[in-house]
Structure formats: C-alpha cells, structure tokens
Amino acid sequence: MTESNGSDAPAGRTDRTERVHQGEQTPDWEKRFRAPRVSLPDWAEDAPDRSLFVSNATGTYELYAWDRSTGEQRQVTDRPNGTTDGVLSPDGEWIWWFDDKDGDEFGVWRRQPFTGGPDELAAPGLDASYPAGLALGRDGRTAVVGRSTDEDGTTIHLVRTVPRAEGAEAPTEPVAPVEIYRHRESAGVGDLSHDGSLIAVEHTEHGDAMHSALRVLRPDGTTVAELDDTKGGTEELGLEVLGFAPVDGDTRLLIGHQRRGRWEPMVWDVATGEETDLSLELPGDVSAEWFPDGTGLLIAHGFEARSELFRYDLAGPELVEIDTPPGTVSGATARPDGSVEYLWSSSAQPSAVRSTSGEVVLDPPGMRSPGSVPVEDVWVEGPGGRIHALVQKPEGATGPLPTVFDIHGGPTWHDSDSFAAGPAAWVDHGYAVVRVNYRGSTGYGRAWTDALKHRVGLIELEDIAAVRAWAIDSGLADPDRLILTGGSWGGYLTLLGLGVQPDAWTLGIAVVPVADYVTAYHDEMEALKAMDRTLLGGTPEEVPERFEASSPITYVDRVKAPVYISAGVNDPRCPIRQIENYVHRLQSREAPHEVYRYDAGHGSLVVDERIKQVRLELDFAERHLGTKTEMETKTGTGTGAEAGKQG
C-alpha cells in the first residue's frame, strides 16, 4: 500500500522542469493540460465592451477582465488554488467573485473595480456560506445574494448600497442586508428583472431536490407569482429559471419545463400568469436565453451527445438554425449586434470561442493544444433501454485493447462529443476509452434521468455492465485489462463497481469519490444532503437499507482489484472522512491500494497538480497492467513505480 500527500509546490512542476533540463520533450497528453484555454466570455449588459472570462494562462484557473474597446486584458484574481466563480455587474463597473478557502466552496462574495483596484467585501453583514445564486441589478447598487448553510438551509438577501455624502472616499456605502426568503430545503436565486422590481427564485420546498418549483418575489419579499409543476411534490416535473426579458417593465420570464418528457423553454408572464408554449419540436433537451433586444431567443439543443444552436423569432414565430460545426457547444451568448458567440469543441478538436461573424473571439497566446481522436457512437441494449456510449481508441489500433471505462460524474450530467484532456491521455498511452451515458444521465429525456432513484448506483452499474459485455464481445476490450475509473459520482460508481462486480474489473481508479455513503451524507454540504434524500427517499436513519445497498463500503471486503484513490482534503461534496473509512477497511485486509491526498476541494484548478494526478493514474495502470506509457513507447524509458510515491 502506498500513501502520498500533495505538497505546497505540486511535484508536477518540478518533474516537468527536470525533464526539460534533460532535453526530454513534453508529451502531447501533458500539452493538452498546459495549453492556455479560456471560457466563454460573459459581458456587461449595459457596457457590452466589458467582459469577464476564466483562463489557465498562468498555470492556475483565474478570472480575467477584458476591455474589448482597447483589447486590454488583466488578471483579476490570484489565489493559490484558483478562482472560477465570478459575475460582472450589468453596468460593467464591478467584478464580483466568490472567495472560499482552498476549494471548500464555503466563503463570501468580494468585488473589485473592473479597471482594477483593491477587493472589498461585496455584501457586508452576510456571514460565510455556500453560494446559492447571485443576481446583480442594473442600477449598480442592488444585489440579490443566495446563501446555503447546514444550520439555516437556504436564505436569500437583498443587498443595497446608498450614496455617501459629497467628498467621501467611496461614492456609496452598504446598508444592512435584508432577508427576503428562508427555507430548510434547497433553493437559489434565479434572476433579477431588468428594472429590478422582480426576483425569480428556484426552490424545492416540496422536498424533491431534482425538480424545482418557481416563485417570483418583490424586493420586500412578498410573492408575485408561483409555478409548481410538481404539484406539491407529487409529480416529478421540474422547472428552471432561464432569465427575465431584457426590457424595462417587461414581466416575461423565460423558463425551462419538462412537461413533454424533456427540457424545453417556455415564456411565463409573471404579472398575468400567461404561459406561451414554444413547441419547437426538437428531439433533445432544449435551453434558451434572450437576444438583447427581447425580440428573439437563442436556442441551444442537445441530442445524443452533440449540440446545435438556433434563433427563434417570437414575432414569426420562426426557428432558424445557426451554423456551427459538428460537436458540442458548451455555452453561447447573443451579442447586441445580433451575432452569437459560442464555446465549441469536439473530441478531436480543442475548444475555441467562436462567433457567427466568422471570427475567433478570444485566442489565448502560447502553446496550442494537440488534438485527439474522434469518438465513435455505440448503442447497446440494456435492462432499462438502449444505452449510448462514446468510444475512443488509438488511431489504427485493433483490439482487444486495454480499455478504460471512464464514468462521468453528476449523476445528472452526460458525456458528449467534446474535447477532454483526460480520456485523450489514456488514448495516447494505447488504451481504448469507453464513456457510458448510463440511466441517470441528462440528454436522453426525463425518464432516463430520473430512473436511478432508490436503487442508486446499482442502476448505473447495470448499464455499465451491459456496455462492458459489448466491448468484450465486439473484440474492442481485453477482458484481462479493464480499468474502471471516474471522478465524483464516477468515482463513487468506480468503488461501488469494484465491490458489486468484483470479477469484472482489473483495476479501479477513483477520483474524489463517495466511498461511505452514510458518513458522506452527514459530512457533505446541505444542498447535497437534499439531493441524497431525493435519490434514496430519505435520510440514512429513515431508509438505512437503501443507503447500505448503495454504499461502496458495504462491499469493500469483496473488492479484488487494486484500487487507486485521490481525494481533496477540503472537499465539501465527497468529504475526506468517509474516504478514510473506506481506506481503513482496505488496510485491515491488506488489499492492494494507493491513496493520494491533495490540498484542495472537489478537484484542482492548478494545472501542475492536475498533471501530477494524471501521471500517477497512468503510472498505477502501467505497473499493474504492464502497459507502456507514451513516453516509454517513444523513447524506451518508463515512469517507474516511484511515481506513485511522490509528494
């Protein structure tokens, strides 16, 4: 058994420097992580030349301000473990960013002038919490701040500043925040209307954390309108806030609904109660946002692991496709000039921020990320219906190959035809990679997403087993060299699968997993407790048999395969104590395992740290399967067993 801990200066940086000094070229898999990348820029509603984006240009993901009129970019945040949660005020004057401690997701909002300057508390008077939504007013003086704590559940506060006396050092001063909403169950701020008179809230007061209802409040906390498709929690139909119309005095709210078995947009006039069903007749999940003039909608359609964009003109009505390459649009926004900017990638091509005007919007300087191989679509009959899997393998390779089943997190998420450095690293090292959109995944209709309730984890493993059988029978996968891996919920399914299906897997690599479901429930953040109560039908005390059946630690004594686990010591989602419980059980029976702990939360925003973790995973597989790394294949040298003992 090997255990290691991350150092203050991640070992990946030292390793890379040593390799460069020795004249060794950086491998493609590492370049994909190091290559600078950017998010889709957000822009200020009333100052559209001012934008905010996230980049890893310094080696850590941080927030950046971008003045499009001058081209000037500057780094806004600079923290050891990175920063990605930021909001630009509609007037373009302020950047709000969430300040937690080392990735624990518990903290306060701070703000900084767009042009630079010292940070200040954005909402004095509000204690630290988990964030539960934020909406900023166009007047530059109003904010709606959502908070979540174990003690209070969800609270929502109106935060305002007032002008200071003439000659004061700062133009405004804060007044005490006013609480306008409180409930034990999960809720969050959806949006603030264009004129600041209406606040949309998503809530789960009915107790179903997977299907929200909507309430619209005035700034004094009184209710304007309610919409609840769950009918008090008796039906599994959710709603979501997509945004108020960007017009003063307009009471139309764009929302998402599931009334026809998938996510679709609808316009709800919260003043009159009128609902305008768009009936777009697209087969997959559909989301939308307003064009800036309020006359049309930007439609994003996701279907079978790919996505496309449309413009929907409300006056027509007319749906017109926007030309985008085949692949995945991870985000899109309509600009005041009518153009659309979008973040696009495919499994073979790295992400880029493009515009319908034909230009690349934001092109980070420095190293270009190498591409990878395209995915192949596979459909497998499973116990709950057809299962969609995405397969990548080394170019020109024929099976049977060592194969990695890389299981996505969520669980309400899905793998898509988008660029991912992790799977590409495995492909570079000679592995086939199979990603399974099991029952519980989004993108295949509400029934597919909601199917995992009560038999949590076991449902997903049935689908993974069906795809595993296909991979072996088709000649793709070597049954003696099968790796089960994943992060977060995928890490949970990895540990559960190693115990429930002990003869199916050669190795397991679990990243920030749930390992002991009962302990995880008691230690995790409040919003996830609510989700677990929904998934399992109650608390561990109310439904102990379900928690036991779905917990990896129940089956730990059946695990046969060597196990590698990595965990963030500050993780509020998959807390460290429950992982230690599982590790102690492995230790007690001297089961082969390795553990790597690092000083961050639910994953790392530091590029060197992420590279170090992938290197340790590749090394673990090499030592146990006898596979050769990309470096060894090309140069005749290996990473060696000592890689697992860094830190």
UniProtKB/TrEMBL annotation:
Residues 423-626 form the Peptidase S9 prolyl oligopeptidase catalytic domain. Residues 13-33 have a biased composition (Basic and acidic residues). The keyword Nucleus does not apply. Keywords: Hydrolase. Residues 1-33, 628-647 are annotated as: Disordered. It comes from Streptomyces hirsutus. It comes from the Bacteria. This is Prolyl oligopeptidase family serine peptidase. InterPro entries: 6-blade_b-propeller_TolB-like (IPR011042), AB_hydrolase_fold (IPR029058), Peptidase_S9_cat (IPR001375). Residues 637-647 have a biased composition (Gly residues).
